[in-house]
Structures are given as C-alpha cells and as structure tokens.
Amino acid sequence: MIKRFSIVALLLLTFGATHAQDFPYGKHNPSDFLSNKAKVDSTADAEVIREFGTGQIQKDDQTGRLYIDYHYHVKIKIINAEGFKSGDIEIPLRIYNNAADEMYDFKATSYYHDNGSIQQNDVDPKRVFTENKNRYLKLVKFTMPNLKPGSVIEYSYRLKRQSIFNFTSWEFQGDIPKQHSEFIALIPANYNFNVSLRGSRGLTSQNGVVQRECLRIGANGMDCSKMTYIMKDVAAFKEEAYMTTASNFKSVINFELSDVHHADGGRSNITRSWKDVDYELTSDRSFGGQMKQKDLFAAKMPEILKDATDSLSKAKAVFAYIKDRIKWNNYLGKYSEKDVKKALEARSGNIGDINLALISALNAAGFNPDAVILSTRQNGVVGDLYPVITEFDYVIAKLNIGGTDYLLDASEPLLPFGLLPMRCLNGKGRVVNFKKASYWFDIKASQKDAVKYNLVAKLDTDGKIKGTLYTFSSGYNAYHKRERIAEAGSIDAYVQQFDEQNPSFEITKHEVINVDSLDKILEERYEITIDQFEGTDYSKLFYNPNFLNRIASNPFKLNERSYPVDMGAATETRVSMILTLPEKFEFAEAPKDIAIGLSQNGGRYQTVTKLDDTMLSFSGLLQLNKPVYTPEEYLSLKEFYSKIIQQQKIDLILQKTK
Length: 658
Hints:
Layout: E1 2-7, E2 15-16, H1 31-34, E3 46-59, E4 66-78, E5 88-96, E6 99-100, E7 102-114, E8 117-122, E9 129-134, E10 137-143, E11 152-161, E12 170-171, E13 178-188, E14 191-198, E15 205-217, E16 220-234, E17 252-261, E18 267-269, H2 274-283, H3 288-291, H4 295-298, H5 301-304, H6 311-325, E19 327-328, H7 340-346, E20 348-349, H8 351-364, E21 370-374, E22 394-401, E23 404-408, E24 428-432, E25 439-442, E26 449-459, E27 464-474, H9 475-488, H10 491-501, E28 506-513, E29 522-531, E30 540-543, E31 565-566, E32 571-580, E33 585-587, E34 595-598, E35 603-612, E36 615-624, E37 628-629, H11 634-648, E38 652-656
Parallel strand pairs: 2-15, 3-13, 19-20, 26-32
Antiparallel strand pairs: 1-14, 3-4, 4-11, 5-6, 5-10, 7-8, 7-11, 9-10, 12-17, 13-16, 14-17, 15-16, 17-18, 21-22, 21-24, 22-23, 24-25, 26-27, 27-29, 28-29, 30-38, 31-37, 32-36, 33-38, 34-35, 35-36
Helix pairs in contact: 6-8, 9-10
C-alpha cells in the first residue's frame, strides 16, 4: 500500500520555533538493561529502543550549493547471541555525479550492565571501514565491540547528502522490531515535495508546524515546514521466499521534489507530465539519440539476415547478433553508458548500451521497435501517479510481429528470443516511442518455468532399478540448466555435478540435447541405476516415486504475510514413471491419490498410481498458474504446500502375492 500526500508549507496552520527532539546520547533507563525480552515481539533477538532522525535542506557557504543535512541516532537492545548481527552496521553513502555523501559527527558505543555499573566501549575509529560497493554507492562498515546478551548499542552520525531531489527516505520498519521510530523533515517554504508512505502500517502520529528562517540564501531568510512522523511498536519485517525487494513492502516514507518557487516569482516544475518525460528521453543523446543509430547496422544487415525467411526469423537474427556482439558488463541503466558505437567497438556495455543497440539494429532491419523503461525487482516498484524518471533503472525493446508483442533483452546470452530475465518481471514498464505518447505495458513472462520427468525402468530380482530418465525443460528451468552447463564448462562436467548431487541413483550413460538451440526444449537422457533394495525377497517393499522432485520443506512459514508471493512466472512440474516389477507383487494397501487445487484456477496438484499385473505407473502434476499471489491468498498457498509435502512423504508399499 502506498499513501501519497504533499508538503505545502503555505498551508500549514500551526506556527512555532520548536526544534527537533532528539534523545540524549549515552543516557539510559534501568529498564534498557533489566529486560531480557523484546517489548514489541517477545521472540525477537534484538529490538530498537528508540530511533530518531532529521533531514533539512541547507546551503554550503563555500560552494553555494544546496544539500541535505541528515542526522541519524539509534539505540538497540541485544537480547541474545543471535542478536549480535544487529551490531554489524552498514551506512550507505550515495554518489551523485561523482560527488559522494559525506559522513561526520560519528560516534558509536556499546554498553553492558555489570554488578550495578554500566560498562562502556566506544568503537575505535581505526576499525571503521569504507567499501566501494559500486560506482553509485559506498558503504561505511563497523562492528559494535564486546557484545553480550543484554548489551545496549548506540550510534549516531550526520550526512551531507549531495542531492536534494529525493530529499531522504526514512525506514520505520526494519529487520528487528522497534519501540519508537521518529523522523523530522524541515523543508523550506519554496520547496514542495510529494510524500509517499509505503507499507501496510499507518503512522502513529504526524504533526506539522512552521519553523522561522530555517534557511538563509543571501539576504533572504526562509521559513520551513517542520513535519514530524512517528511510528510506535513496529513489528520486524520478515522476509520470505518469492518476493521482490523488501523496500517495496516495508513501512517507509519517501520524499520527491515536486516544484520550486523562486525569489523572483518564477516557478520550476520538477515533477512533470509524461509528455515532458517523453520529450526528455527521446531527445536525450544517451537514450533517444542511441535509438537512432541504425546507420551503424545498415551495411551489416545483408549478412545478418542472409538465412532469415520471414519477419520473426529476421528479428531473431538481429537479436542473436546483438547478444553476440555486446557482452553485458553487469551494470544496469536505462541510458547508454558509452554510446552504441563505442559499445560495439569494445564488445561490452551496460543494459542501456545493449538494448538501445538492439532497437537501432531492429530499425535498420526495417522494424519499428519501441523502448520500454522499467524498474527491476531489486530496485522496487514505480509509482504511476506522476512520472519520476529516477525510479526506472532498466530499458528493454518491444517489438510487434504479426499482432504478437515480444519483449526483448539481449543482455543474457542463454535466454531465448522473447523471454526476459527474471529481474525484469516487476509489474509495469513505460513504452517510449518517437511518434506517439508513452503508455504503460504489463511486463510478464512469455513462458512457464516448466520441467517434465519421465522414468521408464525395471526392478530386477537383485533389488536394483535400472532404466532411462528423460528430463524436458523449458522457460526459466531450461535457462537455469543452460547456465549451470556453461558454469561447469562442459556437458560431461555438468552431468558429473548432477550425479554427485543425487546420491539416490548412479548415472551410467548420458545425452543432453538442444543446449545451444535456445528456442527448443532442453532434453536430458540418463541411463540410471538405483540401489533401491537388497534383493526382492522381502515380504514388503517400500518405494517413493518422488525421488527427484520432492519438496522437502514448506517455503511459506509465516502466520500471515502482508506482501505478495511473487514467483515471477507460472510454474509446472510433471512426473511420469513406468516401473516393471518382478512377478507376484501387489499393493499392500491401495495408495491414496490426491487431487487438490487453489481457488480461481490458481494451481493444482494431483497424483495417480496404478498397478497392472507387473506394470507400476505413477504420474504427478504440480501447477502454479499465477506468477503473483496476493497476501489474502497466502494461507491457502501455505496449506496447499503443506498437503503436497505430506503426500510426497508417503511410500508405495508392495508385497508378494501368495
């Protein structure tokens, strides 16, 4: 859930000259040490006692530039040894146009109550390290010293943030519960910000007053709106399988600059219409300018298209050419980093270089492709109320052939035409074209994540099962297997790893087909031997047909989940087994087949087992027909998996006939 509102200083009704209410550093209540359980969640390993922060626009007197003065202060109770990880601290420093945030006024201390006195240990500045994470981020890292169960840790710092556009964000909800989280934003009256509160929790309280002359530019003193946001008794955010980035769902408040009123009466709109953004993108040399570079490919097209016979095969030939010519350098981006020509020469580039080159090449081949900007799963969802171009971190191509839309990303060599990397599957993208207005388009997987196992085998009197295992993989399942084959270095090495990971059987012969034919199903054929029994002279034999695909544990463990289950794509697993038995065997008890489903055709699981003379057959099907399940469907999905796990534990019991 996202709640949006706007800070407009001129409309505030309360006036005053109050100051941010930080709590004193190094002063503690006896209860901070006496309690051996967290207040908000008695099962927590650590808990924030109090957290406070402020953000304020200030002017650098030396450079004349505006910046954000950000202050952070927190006190945390360590409940047990598992909570020690809360003492491993990382402080992000963003980098904007080669100018990084600057940290100062740093202090960090751990405390422990010992025989009536409080023992204090300060963090040694020599043990504070800065890691260059990437070109846009640095991390200040340190570990709180001498932690014990019952310790209290405290640290504070200030940042000089170089960009005022996004002001700052405040995360009310984190990995551990919080008793009290408070943030104060002081924003000059001539700056209007759009504010969004993300997450399922509401604020405990919020308040706004006017603070006089909080910022002075030249001879002009400006009043500020002082907004205080408080959230109390905040449960920890618990991550679980099948989710996009946690920042999509934690309770967080975000600020985005909307417009600025100047002293001369003028006004600059920062938040623009999509028409403005369309013009900005198409006229930008690093975006629209790179989409027009078809002259780079015109001379090469006869060779690229020499074997193509129709529009689809032409598009696939161009797609394959770009995949082969430009290797992804592992950097995202909706803009070209080098420009298409340099990326082609270097045979390397970011996502913008690759997919804008793809669009140019498709133009040169006579197509009319569009660009689609999107936000990746780890970057978070984008809002659709007003355009914020910085929310997008990726670009792909969209191509219509014969009435079918294909979404294309040439950055992954092992993905087939029309199947996007999983990182792209994050809701909607914005289609950008030179000739028409941009529009939203749903980003969906074009194929299921599918696998089929087929075992044809015979149980010999020595107790060994010998036969052939066929595996057919498509969609993301085939992609991940092709990745593992590439990482292993050869098919033989991949099969050896597969054999080692499955001690229940031995592979004696193998064949893997269509490894390089990405548009075809990946086929694996294995001659296998299973040492199932020590002979067959037993009154009963126990056999479980789920030896390859058994679900060992339920991925859904929460009592409730406030965010969707996002698998990215629909999935399907089929199992088929035909096992020839020695004569004179029957079921000791008839196996109980199962057929269960989720509501609204959300998925199903079914098994069918038969014994016809000496022929034992088993088939199983697990389908999850939706890429995304709502929080309201969570408990049904959890119960669905629980029933599957119980069913897959049950052995088939065979006995000799009399």
